[in-house]
Prior knowledge:
It contains six helices and nine strands. By secondary structure, it is α+β, with helices and mostly antiparallel strands. The chain folds into two domains: 43-52 and 144-343, no CATH class; 59-134, no CATH class. A hairpin with a 2-residue loop joins β2 and β3 (206-211).
Amino acid sequence: MHHRKAISCSVFAASAAILLLAQVSAVGQQAAPAKKVWTPGRTPDGDPDITGVYDARTATPVERPKGLGAKEFYTDLEFKDITDRLHRKDPTAPGVSAGVFGEGGGDNRRVQYDKDVFGYDVFLSNYVATKRTSLVVGPEGTVPPMLPEARERNAKRNAYIRAHDTDRVQNQNLETRCILSNRQLIPLFPIEDSNTHLQIVQGKGYVTIYEELNHDARVIPTDGRPHLAKEIRQYQGDSVGHWEGNALVVDTTNFTDQTVFRGSTENLHLVERYTKVSPDMLLYRFTVEDPKTWDKPWTVEVPWMTAKGPLYEYACTEGNESLGLILGAARVKEAAEAKNSAK
């Protein structure tokens, strides 16, 4: 009798324990707060609010280092390691040794006088917060190779420029002429480690992106208007925007043959997405397409981190006096060569 009672008590205790664990588990599941999805605020006109001052600086290389293969993201430990190496000014940190900003590799800012003083030092940059191994997205992580005809076209163009760059003002590039700097040309590729601040301002039917470098203001209509006629070409193309959820989507066509993006033609088609994903980060993503330059579109993603203002005034060669010096020196050289050949 006592034996059966002991068994019964044991069974009851076990059952009660199982029931209690189930209740605790259920309570724990109910108590775990659901992860809240952050959404941006709204402007007075009801559009997602992406206004603010941002810094597009990054030490993440444009293309993925070859040793990483198809690895798109660093692990948390890897990301911490390379970030620590960057802050220790380790020249072998990914992106530093591979060349962060130039198309051909190498940091052309490294030779600039007093880089540290003016904040141009690549070691002051950060890797992208998304832990990407490259700015170019996808398993390949590289810009598609140029088509053979595109390589030939650009080789001829570059050869002509080298031979005739001082013949006239129009043969100088847009940056030297203080029309558009390389940092201003869209898409906004982080090719330099200076003047990387931008400011976004919104109004009814428009979004304006103001760049610190060369104080350029790009005004993008969002009122549903169509593109300009194909015959009308502009240095920065014709941009029209619209909202898709929380993202500003900007479609740009009608480029000229003078605003070459990595060897592109005037047929370049650019689609940009600006999405505020947290209080301190805006995700800038763009896709470029030019069937006369690459055999497929390719995409880049760069987080822009919020920054404290203000943006500083920028002057391009203090009144553009360098053009007169460049062309004037060329005329002096030509006169000397003509005088020597006449002897």
